[in-house]
Each structure stands twice: as C-alpha cells, then as structure tokens.
Amino acid sequence: MKITLDLAQLVAEGKLTAAEAERLKTYAAADTGQLAINVLLGLGAAAVAAGVGILIPSLQTLIALGGILFVAGFAMRVARVEQWSVFAQIIMVIGALALGGGLFALFGEQLWVRVALTLGLAVAGVVAASGLLVSLAVIAFGATITVDADLWTPTHYLAAAIGSLSLLTLALYLVSLRLPPAYERLAIVAMRTAILLVNAAFFIGSVFGDELLGWSSLSFAIAWALALLAFGGWAVSANRRWVVNVVAVFGAIHFFTQWFMVLGAQPLSILGGGLLLIGFGLALAQFNRVYRQRRAVA
What we know:
By secondary structure, this protein is mainly α. Among the domains are: 1-107, no CATH class; 218-298, no CATH class. It is 81% helix and 1% strand. The protein is built from 11 helices and 2 strands, in the order ααααααββααααα. A two-stranded antiparallel ribbon has the order 1-2. Helix 7 runs antiparallel to helix 8 (181-208), helix 8 (181-208) packs antiparallel against helix 9 (217-237) and helix 8 (181-208) runs parallel beside helix 10. The chain is globular and about 55 Å long. The two termini are 20 Å apart.
C-alpha cells in the first residue's frame, strides 16, 4: 500500500522528527530514481520496436514485436518483480496494443477472433493484476459490439452498446463487492471504463441519433438525462465520489451540447453557458469538500 504524507507538515506538528523526515526522504529519492530508470527503459524499448517496425513495415512485424513485448512484460508482472514493475507495465501495454491491433487488422472480420482477443486481454489483465489491460478489454468489448466487421465502420447500434455496457457495469460492481482488495481494484477499473464508454455512446446518440434503429437524437438526449439523474442520485446516496464527479462532468457535457445545438454559438449563449459552468464547478467542489470532511470524521 502506498501512502502520501506531507513530511514538512508532520514535522511542524511535532508528529515526526526532522531526522525521521530526512530518512523517509532518502527512501523516496531511491524510489524516484528507480521509477526514472523504468520509464527510460520503457521508452527505449518502445523506440527500438518502432525502429524495427519502420525498417520492416508489415502487420506481421507489428504482431511479432507486440507479442515479444507483451510476453516479456507479462512475465515480469506475473513474477512480481517490483523494481521493474513500471517497465513491465509499459512494454506489456505497448505490446498488447501492437499485438491486438495487428490481429484485428488481419483477422478482425471474424467475430470469434475479436471475442478471443477481448477475453485474452481480460484474462491477462487479471493474471498480471494490470488495470490498463482490463480497461483495454472493456474497450475491445465495446468495439466488438459497435463495429461492423465486414465494412470496418460503426454499426450505429448504440442502444445495444449502451445496454450491454450498462449490464457489464452492473455485473462488475456486484462482483467487486465480493472480491479481495487486489481484484476489487481491477473490477472497479473495468467498471469505470464501461461507465465512460456508456456515456460516450449516449453522447454520440444525442447528436446523431441511430439511423438503423430509427431513434432520434432527442430520444437519446432524454434517455441520457434520465440515466444521469438516476445514476447520480444513487452515487450521492452511496457516497461514491468518483461516480458523482463523472456524472457531473458528463451532465455538463450533455447540457452544453443541447444548449448550443438549440441556441447556437452567440455571445449571450456563450456568456450564459460560462456562468452555468462556473456554477456547476462550484457545486462539484462543495460536494468534494463535504465528502472529504465525512471521510476524515469516519
């Protein structure tokens, strides 16, 4: 577990001696140095892979390089080599993107390939305890639903995407309540990614509608507003600050999208929108302040 401490404040309050503070700073300096080495190695590996890809430009090269990077990073993550954890995370994610992208480009017209890649990312994310991989798995799940494999264009089945991702969000939330802390974190990361994708799908629908289903943009706009109100109300009652903040942000995006679609971009509408945005920001800041106070008392 990582804990952030203000050493200067603790020394000033007499809760920590100056000598103890200096000793803790040496640990932080060593950790910072190791982090810098990890980042440099990760960037170096990415640069070497990019150079090889430019010299031998093909999807097969992309897949091979992605596989090598992914396997190397995955092995280090599974082995729990803490000092190289950041390096392993960097090359593992780069490898997953390259490998998955190459396989999608070559065989993505086959549904079973896309499903297999989605499941593979999910399993690898759980085994390697990687929040980035499980997040990519959710994104791959969304792409599997919303992309026409024959034409590589959006199907516009937004309602199906919204429904599927909403069910996935609910399932991940219920599962997270019964998991140990390490796996609970992964479930929450996946759930948050699904929430972002649901709101993105609602946004697209509120602007363009869904031609294949015959749903107008107004239908999506109303459904999105009701969903945000219901979800936000639950988040406040359940004291889920991250969800409240996300609902507030997407609520503002939704409001101003409709605001400017109706009123247009003119001086008075921009002025009014700016004032409302300031009001939303102050209200959100107040909520976060009250939340921190309640956490401190608890």
